[in-house]
Automatic annotation (TrEMBL):
Lineage, highest ranks first: Bacteria, Pseudomonadati, Bacteroidota, Cytophagia, Cytophagales
TM region(s), chain numbering: 7-25, 31-50, 62-79, 141-166, 173-194, 235-255, 261-281, 325-343, 355-376, 388-404, 413-432
KW Plastid (keyword) present: no
Alphabetically ordered keywords of this record: Membrane, Transmembrane, Transmembrane helix
UniProt-recorded name of the protein: Carotene biosynthesis protein
Family matches, as Pfam families: MptA_B_family
Length: 439
């Protein structure tokens, strides 16, 4: 009983810190937020390391993990304003307006002569006024469901949170099942269930990378079970929510053989094609691609290799280097990924999971923009491997929020160096250890 009390005390401290982050502190108060985040991250590690001594059962751990998420249930996202665009797009669809055909300002004129305060708040809150929507149609389905709550922002947020929590439940089940099937320690589940990055970015900030992770985990689960069609549908699901999982297609081609590969490709291509069909209306696909490319060639945030290249290229590229360096880095990432794919054996589920994690790592390190929530799919999959890089990065990446201390986004070079020093240090350590040490 004494050991249980220690566990509950850690959960209580975690809950208080989470409440303060969600309701009492703005993101401009970075050092307060960061101190609370590190407290939560440390608590999650304590729960993992001492779960056996504290007699944390599966049921008890999952209940506590969900209760922590419910603390943020009625909070408005503090660290990210992306949810304004989510709700805005959903409301456009609900009103019969295609979000791929109009800029936000232009779409308002199609609603009525007099725009309500609700719509004005959505428009003023979003950070993407001059872009067509860059979210795939399947992603938009969730926005539409949230819009069914009417012109009430809290209701919209609650619906999005409920959907995300449902998929968190599926993720818990899949992580537990895969850990059991692969003979790994079940306590690894707590590294995901109590990780503050996961709680804050999914339940708190309403990002959908957790739903992408659900699809990828399901694809691996069905791969392990040799259920080709179900694996293909699951991977297509992940692609339908975010297009980034397309980059692991070469791995699937290596992993499946013969007729299984044909079935996998056939099913997944069909599902992806159906999910993208709404883009074919009028100029939707062109506008989607235009905004996607504009995003890729205009935004830079929390990058690593790109910032090094930008500094070096500054000696001869004196204007908008991202337009030149962005495509070059994407090409280098693609070449590196192909080399990774063909140098690795894919005979076991753990080998496939490990390869996917490294591909995501390469992708993230070559990107011009790396928001904290981008890590979640790779981090969740890394629990099935001996790779600790994503775990360490999930603790360090919160340093990127220091850029929002002022109204103008301004990154701190020292904090960037600390963050990526930890990441690259862990990558070097991982190679030196040659994956011989488990969590």
């Amino acid at each position: 009983m004494k050991n249980r009390i220690q566990f509950y005390m850690v959960i209580l401290i975690y809950a208080i810190a989470l409440f303060i982050m969600g309701y009492c502190v703005d993101r401009s108060d970075f050092f307060v937020q960061f101190g609370l985040y590190i407290l939560c991250f440390g608590a999650s590690l304590l729960i993992y390391f001492y779960s056996v001594n504290w007699e944390v059962s599966l049921k008890m751990g999952l209940i506590c993990a969900f209760l922590l998420r419910l603390i943020l249930i009625i909070s408005e996202p503090v660290l990210s304003d992306d949810f304004f665009r989510f709700v805005f797009d959903g409301q456009l669809i609900r009103n019969g307006i295609n979000p791929y055909l109009y800029f936000p300002h232009d779409s308002l004129s199609l609603l009525s002569d007099e725009v309500s305060v609700y719509w004005q708040n959505l428009l003023e809150g979003m950070n993407s006024h001059e872009y067509f929507s860059v979210y795939p149609p399947f992603h938009q389905l969730f926005f539409y469901i949230a819009a069914l709550g009417g012109e009430n922002l809290l209701a919209n947020i609650l619906i999005l949170r409920f959907l995300i929590l449902v998929f968190e439940g599926f993720t818990f089940y899949l992580v537990y099942s895969l850990l059991s099937l692969l003979g790994l320690k079940i306590s690894k589940l707590w590294l995901y269930a109590f990780n503050p990055l996961v709680i804050l970015e999914l339940t708190g900030n309403l990002h959908f990378e957790g739903i992408v992770l659900t699809g990828l985990l399901a694809a691996l689960y069905f791969y392990h079970k040799n259920q080709t069609k179900s694996s293909g549908i699951s991977w297509a699901w992940a692609v339908g929510v975010k297009l980034s999982p397309l980059m692991i297609l070469p791995l699937w081609i290596r992993a499946w053989k013969g007729k299984s590969l044909i079935w996998f490709l056939g099913v997944s291509i069909f599902v992806i094609g159906v999910s993208l069909m709404p883009l074919i209306f009028e100029t939707g696909y062109l506008n989607f691609w235009k905004s996607f490319r504009l995003y890729q060639s205009s935004f830079e945030f929390n990058a690593s290799i790109y910032y090094i290249f930008r500094w070096i290229s500054g000696f001869w590229l004196d204007y908008n280097p991202i337009q030149t360096l962005g495509p070059i880095l994407n090409l280098l990432a693609f070449i590196t990924i192909i080399m990774l794919v063909f140098k690795r054996k894919i005979q076991k589920t753990t080998e496939l999971a490990e390869a996917i994690v490294w591909i995501f790592l390469v992708y993230l390190l070559f990107q011009t923009t790396v928001h904290p929530w981008y890590l979640i799919p790779a981090f969740g999959l890394s629990l099935l491997t001996k790779n600790k890089v994503l775990l360490a990065w999930s603790g360090a990446i919160f340093l990127s929020y220091a850029a929002y201390r002022n109204d103008l986004v301004e990154e701190n070079a020292i904090l960037l160096f600390i963050q990526y020093g930890i990441v690259f240090g862990m990558i070097i350590w991982t190679f030196l250890k040659r994956f011989t040490v488990d969590y």
